[in-house]
Design goal:
Blueprint lengths: L1 H23 L13 H7 L7 H19 L4 H7 L1 H10 L4 E4 L5 E2 L19 E5 L21 E3 L8 H5 L10 E3 L8 H5 L9 E3 L9 H11 L4 E3 L6 H9 L7 H4 L12
Parallel strand pairs: 3-4, 4-5, 5-6, 6-7
Antiparallel strand pairs: 1-2, 1-3
Protein name: ATP synthase subunit s-like protein
InterPro entries: LRR_dom_sf (IPR032675)
Family: Belongs to the ATP synthase subunit s family.
């Protein structure tokens, strides 16, 4: 990184000197010198922060812009391939893997960047499971996860960009999703976990390495009350004394009668 920053610094200084030299000699955008216009010279004469910190900040900004652009929804891709295949291509291109209904094979890129997914529409090819663990996916990427009517399994474990805003976007899977893994997602807080109440068919939830979440034990009890048939993995068992304390202060779902609004997840202890 230091070598790259130094190279950029030298390049900018060289171009600025050349722009100043040209402007002093009255060269304009009509100058025949290839590659330089008046607009380019004005840009080069601006006061840039070419310190290591300034250039590092500039490079990070560019990387962020490219990352956000890479997650953009491409309507043409979905229109041509259909939502399931289009989403599959989006996922495997980011080092994830996918599985289709009736097929035990997980599709992912090999060392040669081949994913073996069809590049044309295929009938009766529906996504059933998506594994995005350890990828860079963010909430913007969920724009590509649309109209997945058969999706039952999602794994976003150890994804740095999965946060509370990301969790609030999971409502689009409320009618089909049965298993969710968000283990190790350090940017998910108790507010993000409260969004899980919208997943109507949830049967399995993995929350390993989530000790940073405040009131995690109470939220788990609340989720178990909301989803009696859901198995929650990754939560360490507690001493009997602590379990008794939790039972005595077991959280409830606030109902419409209690709050005047629709039922939602919120901690309300019994007194």
């Amino acid at each position: 990184m230091a070598a790259l920053v130094r190279t950029v610094q030298l390049k900018i200084l060289q171009q600025q000197k050349q722009a100043i030299w040209m402007s002093q000699r009255g060269m304009t955008s009509n100058t025949k010198r290839k590659g330089f216009s008046l607009k380019s010279m004005r840009r080069l004469q601006q006061d840039y922060d070419i310190s290591y910190t300034g250039l590092n900040r500039f490079l990070q900004k560019r990387l962020k812009e490219e990352f956000e652009k890479s997650e953009s929804f491409i309507p043409e891709r979905h229109q041509f391939l259909g939502p399931d295949l289009a989403t599959a291509h989006f996922v495997v291109a980011r080092e994830g893997s996918v599985k289709f209904v009736g097929n035990d094979r997980w599709f992912k890129e090999d060392e040669n960047k081949n994913n073996f997914l069809p590049n044309r529409p295929v009938m009766d090819m529906y996504l059933e499971a998506i594994n995005c663990s350890n990828t860079m996916i963010s909430y913007r990427g969920l724009d590509n996860f649309i109209d997945l009517e058969y999706l039952k399994y999602l794994n976003f474990s150890n994804c740095h960009h999965v946060d509370d805003w990301f969790m609030s976007r999971l409502h689009q899977f409320s009618e089909t999703l049965e298993f969710l893994d968000i283990s190790g997602c350090k940017n998910v807080t108790d507010r993000g976990l409260e969004c899980l109440h919208i997943l109507k068919k949830l049967q399995g939830l993995k929350l390993s390495d989530m000790d940073h979440v405040e009131n995690l034990d109470l939220i788990v009890l609340l989720l178990q009350e909301r989803f009696p048939d859901c198995v929650i993995f990754g939560i360490d068992s507690k001493p009997q004394k602590q379990i008794e304390t939790d039972i005595n202060s077991k959280p409830q779902i606030i109902t419409e009668k209690d709050s005047g609004t629709k039922p939602h997840l919120q901690i309300k202890t019994r007194t």
